[in-house]
Amino acid sequence: MELTTKAISMRQCFWKIDNKLLLAFVFAVSSLVVQTAGQNSTANGLLVGFYNETCPQAETLVQKIVQLFFEDDRTVPAALLRLFFHDCFVRGCDASIMISSNMTNRAEQDASPNLTVRGLDVINAAKTAVENVCPGKVSCADIIALATRDAVFLANGPHWDVLTGRRDGRISLQADAENLPGPSDTAQQGINAFAAKGLSVLDFVCLLGAHTVGVSHCRFFSNRLFNFAGTGKPDPTMNPRLLKTLKQICSNPCKSTGYVPTVSLDQGTPFLFDTSYFKELIHGHGILRIDQQIGADNTTSKIVRAFASRSAHFDFSSHFATSMINLGNVEVKTGSEGEIRFKCNVINT
To answer: Its domain of life (predicted)?
Structure first.
């Protein structure tokens, strides 16, 4: 009886802990993970400085190429973040999204979610630069991971040690990429999709935070403006002023002329990697349904508000770096798996 009473007392004490303390504990553990990952190899064989001996110039070469593209186009960080995410969620982070279709195979690039994916030219240019110095040494999968980190940093985001040693996949199928997590998903659908890849709720919210530098084509959210859930009316959760603005930019699909403009997912500071995205969600300014969902859902809204508060305990940048490392570990190929492609868009013969 005494043990039972103590157990009940401890349980009651636990549930009285303030939500902020719970979040602080989760985030503190997350920070510890990123520090550990940056110093050691992972169980799957990735490690920081994998190319220190075989191609010590690799990371510098990639960084220079990204810098050149960024100087001409400030949307490069958003493009590479989406490219990295779409690659890792299909057969793992193996650069399979880079493979071009041919007469005998429709590749991932032809899947409907990937038709607007950009940044392939950046990766191909970086691969060419690295191949000229270290032929056959550095994988396209690692170049994507490195280039994405460098692009985020150029947009005022965090800089983290990228674990390298990935190998490139030899399979790329259109059908595999048709069911990527989508802009119209609910928060729970997103949580489930990320959990299936070994990623946490915190990872889910952090990685959606990449929308702080992202854009979207009108077709991905026009239903929220004109015919939400088949009601013939707008989504009632969208801020009325934002709704009016977006209707002026995006025409009703029934009257579409074929031109589809884009809208910044962060209406505050669209080219800066910061917490403005999370602040916008609190005010009903989420562009995509999934954005607004994480701002309202009981499971995710506490994290959104914590990041928006910019508290010292809830630093978005450091936790985003952790989540990017976690994403980069998804189903990677190492050792004798896969190959090191000579060209990112073609499997070695």
So the answer is: Eukaryota
